[in-house]
Design goal:
The protein has 417 residues and is α+β, with helices and mostly antiparallel strands. It has helices spanning 3-17, 27-48, 58-91, 96-129, 176-182, 190-197, 239-252, 315-320, 364-380, and strands at residues 137-139, 155-163, 166-174, 217-221, 224-229, 258-263, 269-271, 275-277, 281-282, 292-296, 302-306, 330-331, 340-345, 348-357, 385-390, 394-395, 398-399, 412-415. The protein is built from nine helices and 18 strands.
Length: 417
Amino acid sequence: MSEIKKDDDTLDELLTNMPKFTDQRSKEEIYNRVKVEVEAQIKEEKRKASAVSFSKWMPFIVSVASILLLTFLVSSYIDQKETAISTESEADQASPTAKMRSMDEAKESEETSLVEEGDQASEMTTMSAMIDTSIELLPLHKTTSVYADTVNEGTVFHFSLVENALTIPVTIIIPKEKIEADFPGITPTSLQLYDRYAGQIDEESLGFMEYHPYKGYFIAEDKLLKHYLPKDHGYDMASGASTTYRQSINEIFTDFETFLAVNEDSSPIEWDQVGLWEKPSKLDGKLGHTNYYNYHANNGENYLAPNFGNSYNSISEAFLAMKTEDNDIYTSVIPSSVTYSYKEEKGVAVIQFDDTLDLTKLEPLAATRLIEAFSLTGASFKTKVKLENVAQQEWAEFDLTKPLPVPLGPNGFIMNN
């Protein structure tokens, strides 16, 4: 046996014994992973140097795509090489001409596969390069919450801002034209909205910490949302971090009923201080039976938020607890001199002030937040609210002679582009 033949046999044996690399993930799933990693890296660098342009990150995007491409190519190369070896083995018994033809066909097949996989990776790189990282959010002015008649055919995107391990639910109105451009022909779910826009929101420019996008990736299974997390996710490092993580998930993914975090290989995740997380957790979404308080953020703005996400057994308990201040983080929207009672009339929750409430005695936005804190609390129980014994019949956008409109969410913003 010639030395060349020995080398060929050795190479064939090595190739035969090599493990096969397979990737069962869909193209969409792979792209979403790349997109999340790219956006997270971009936002990390923006914290270090906000003036850095997006073009600086093109090499990073290309590198990530190259890794994916290499995975595809290795798998393709091994499969094609094994095919060529098998063909060559059969051709050993045939004529030299037949053997040459078999090798040419294997080479052509391999080249075709390389082109196809290269096109897929190129497409993902192009899509990643098109990621826009400069979404501008403009706060509402006449009201602080979002209502059906103010959406103007747009789409509501529920989001969560984080400061000092506290979550602040916000409600973003996305114009109809942008939704039609980004989601042609479909109505996006909360997960699709999050995947598309979360990485583009500059939380730091709003005065909050850069918390999004989450590490890992999400997959929807009907009404169950699964979060596939890497080993170093850090969301369970302390009870505060875990609470922030769970509350923000609940505030964002309002159209899912349950939620489960798992390891990247789909196995149950070990959650620090809790143990093995094997069963899905319930997501209350907008019906969390919470009441609303005033939160004064470090950026100097005031927001309406549940008191550490506390829930109540009844709407009467929630309403009456709104005057209670059991910490120095959340303050009541109701002045200490104002008292009231609660009753229900024909399915409407009625708040009756003991003495006539003159809203002009309050700062205008503080008066608006008082009204909306009651309506948001009612909405958390799926109940309309009416205020009685108020000096004014109208305030801001509200007709106080009728039940208040049901808010779609607190702390409204409009997506400007």
